[in-house]
Amino acid sequence: MTTAGQGRDATLEPSTEAHAVEVPEDAPAQPAATPGSVSDGVLVRRGGIGPRLSAIALGVVVAAGALYGVLLHVWLLVHLPIWGDEAIVGLMAQSIDNGHFSAFYWGQHYGGLEPYLVAAALKIGGGGEPALNATPAVLAALAAVLVAGIGLAGGRDRLTAAAAGTAVWVWPYVVVWQSVREGGFREATLCCGLAAILCCVRVSRDRAGPWTFLLLGVALGLG
After folding, report:
1. Residue 211 and residue 96: Cα distance in Å, rounded?
2. Nearest 10 degrees: Cα torsion 48, 50, 53, 57
3. Contact between 53 and 151 (Cβ < 8 Å)
4. How far apart are CA 215 and CA 209, in angstroms?
5. What pLDDT, in 10s, does the model give residues 11-64?
6. pLDDT band at 3 (very low <50, low <70, confident <90, very high)
7. Element (H, E) at 107
């Protein structure tokens, strides 16, 4: 026999038994719980410490790679001797500084923008081999930034995009070696091509404004 007090206590105690609930066939499906959401009053926690450690490790690798790339480029600039093709670009830059302009690498059917950038670099740096070959090195750094920008425009997170840019900055070695050898066209053409790709990615994702189309035209025209 159950007393009234026992009945009241029984109603206050939560039931621990599982009850089967019949769900109609045409009932809408319930969405699965996602990390950070609340399902039936229970907070679904995000991923544990593993992803955070992975992100920190990748950030350290990106920072170390960027610093290594700077040191490698500086070391190559200081130690590599100048060669004939670079000397011609230097002479073209001096000619440009004196008011004699040319659209192509002397004696060839290619060239374009880069000797004009070299002329500015020689004036700023006071002349000499390091100032001559610093121009493609700076353009190589710009190319790495553009690669990171393409990653961001394509929907990647900042750390992944930075890792892609760092990879371009430090590898492969033959590309790094070429990036401190002033050939008269390579690095400027590379930057123009990457800038054009960045603009096209922005257009494809409906993020393009008037400046994007202007940059696209300039990049295709100069590159």
Report:
1. 29
2. -150
3. no
4. 10
5. 444 444 444 445 455 555 555 544 444 444 444 445 557 788 888 888 899 999
6. very low
7. none
Please tell me whether residue 201 adopts helix, strand or coil conformation.
Answer: helix
Q: What's the pTM value of the predicted model, to 2 decimals?
A: 0.73
First and final CA of the chain: distance in angstroms?
95
Cα angle 218, 222, 223; round to 5: 110
Q: Decide: helix, strand or coil at residue 39.
A: strand
Residue 121 CA to residue 145 CA, distance in Å, equals: 20
In eight-state DSSP terms, residue 13 is S
Q: Which two tokens mark 136?
A: 């493609």
Q: CB of 62 within 8 A of CB of 159?
A: yes
Give the number of other Cβ atoms within 10 Å of residue 209's Cβ. 8
